[in-house]
């Protein structure tokens, strides 16, 4: 199938072609015709499958067929997202595909001054992409009305629930007109998603382009069994020896992101940290520098697991495994996007074996292990459902603290594997 077969206007087809796309992804091919029919949709798709364009294109097409309201234009499309990063991604998608159409879109999210957003909204906008908190702030201050919304999109619904937005979502839904089109998109399924779908969707068409909670086939996955204190050394080696130019590294905590970033900088690796305590300006700069190739490694908490759309990102590393197995799917979904190949590597300490077991149970498969990591062999056999010891019991080694008989971190980052391995056990 080609995009030209999906009953899209010439303006939309031109915008799609300008992005180099001619063939829709499976989620786009299935969702676009159904949305154009005005049906409610419950869609499940892996991250990186093009679901944003899957609802953006048909909604723009529907607006194009309507009479343009007089100024100030009311909000006719509301797209709700869990994070600022995802809001900006969807906003850029709307602008990209709607560049030849006379519609206005605005992104509304917290962490920045509210005044410029108020000014833009007051001028009128057709499409609002928003995070729940800032949207409710604008509504409560009577700067924004949802009374004319005709199409409501809940993007990354599972992440919304994970982040505790269910009460805000219900408040927002209560402010919407009863007669509207509802589109719910989710990368993973949980009983809570089904319950939410029953509350807001009317006779929906269910679209699933892959099995639930599955990783993309374009992503190769590897496990490096290794003690926690050697993780940073191994990561530096993998980046340097592999000449990686772009790698997204996930850690569990904000403090851990800052610490690892400083350690890698000492190892001679250009990197930046990305987490919720960073200002919006700092987060934007970090993402722009990463996309532009100015930094090699972006060290992020799970705030970056959704909403990061980086073309041809080749590597994702789980420095820490996530506490929730479904988050593993979202993390590694940052690579292998739009049909490209990607590699996801997880550095797993024995204390994280129970987390790995939960991930493999979710995936219904065992992830291959690297037999020889160049370090002491460790077992990832699960001895209990959850360790009693504190997760802070073993801290990563400080950057630059070379152990007896080991080369410096900078040297290790550029050394060859043969020179790095020892016959003696560590």
TrEMBL record:
UniProt-annotated stretches for the region Disordered: 381-426
SMART domains the UniProt entry points to: DEXDc, HELICc
Name of the protein in question: DEAD/DEAH box helicase
UniProt KW Nucleotide-binding keyword: yes
Residues spanned by motif Q motif: 1-29
Composition-biased stretches (Polar residues): 381-395
Family matches, as InterPro entries: DEAD/DEAH_box_helicase_dom (IPR011545), DEAD/DEAH_RhlB (IPR044742), DEAD_box_RNA_helicase (IPR050079), Helicase_ATP-bd (IPR014001), Helicase_C-like (IPR001650), P-loop_NTPase (IPR027417), RNA-helicase_DEAD-box_CS (IPR000629), RNA_helicase_DEAD_Q_motif (IPR014014)
Organism of origin: Methylomonas subterranea
The organism's place on the tree of life at top rank: Bacteria
PANTHER family with a match to the protein in the record: ATP-DEPENDENT RNA HELICASE RHLE, ATP-DEPENDENT RNA HELICASE RHLE-RELATED
């Amino acid at each position: 199938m080609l995009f030209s077969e999906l009953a899209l206007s010439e303006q939309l087809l031109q915008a799609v072609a300008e992005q180099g796309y001619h063939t829709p992804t499976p989620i786009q091919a299935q969702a676009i015709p159904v949305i154009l029919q005005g049906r409610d949709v419950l869609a499940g798709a892996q991250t990186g499958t093009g679901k944003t364009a899957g609802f953006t294109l048909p909604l723009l097409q529907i607006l194009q067929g309507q009479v343009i309201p007089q100024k100030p234009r009311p909000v006719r499309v509301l797209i709700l997202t869990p994070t600022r990063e995802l809001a900006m991604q969807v906003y850029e998608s709307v602008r990209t595909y709607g560049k030849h159409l006379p519609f206005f879109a605005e992104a509304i999210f917290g962490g920045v001054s509210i005044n410029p957003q108020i000014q833009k909204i007051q001028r009128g906008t057709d499409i609002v992409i928003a995070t729940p908190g800032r949207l409710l702030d604008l509504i409560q201050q009577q700067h924004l009305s949802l009374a004319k919304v005709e199409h409501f999109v809940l993007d990354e619904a599972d992440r919304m629930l994970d982040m505790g937005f269910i009460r805000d979502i219900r408040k927002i839904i209560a402010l919407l007109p009863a007669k509207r089109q509802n589109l719910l998109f989710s990368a993973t399924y949980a009983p809570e998603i089904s319950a939410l779908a029953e509350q807001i969707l009317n006779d929906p068409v269910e679209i699933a382009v892959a099995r639930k909670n599955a990783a993309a086939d374009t992503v190769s996955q590897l496990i490096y069994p290794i003690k926690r204190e050697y993780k940073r050394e191994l990561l530096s080696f993998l980046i340097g020896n592999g000449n990686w130019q772009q790698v997204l590294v996930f850690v569990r905590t904000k403090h851990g992101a800052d610490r690892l970033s400083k350690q890698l900088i000492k190892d001679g690796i250009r990197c930046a940290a990305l987490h919720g305590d960073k200002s919006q300006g700092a987060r934007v700069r970090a993402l722009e520098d990463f996309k532009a190739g100015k930094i090699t490694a972006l060290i992020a908490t799970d705030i970056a697991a959704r909403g990061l759309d980086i073309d041809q990102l080749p590597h994702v590393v789980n420095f820490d495994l996530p506490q929730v197995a479904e988050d593993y799917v979202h993390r590694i979904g940052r690579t292998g996007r739009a049909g490209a190949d990607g590699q996801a590597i997880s550095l797993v300490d024995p204390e994280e074996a129970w987390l790995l077991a939960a991930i493999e149970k979710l995936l219904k498969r065992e992830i291959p292990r690297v037999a020889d990591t160049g370090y002491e062999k460790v077992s990832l056999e699960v001895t209990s459902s959850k360790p009693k010891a504190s997760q802070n019991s073993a801290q990563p080694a400080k950057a630059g603290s070379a152990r007896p008989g080991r080369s410096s971190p900078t040297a290790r980052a550029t050394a060859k594997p043969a020179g790095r391995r020892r016959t003696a056990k560590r």
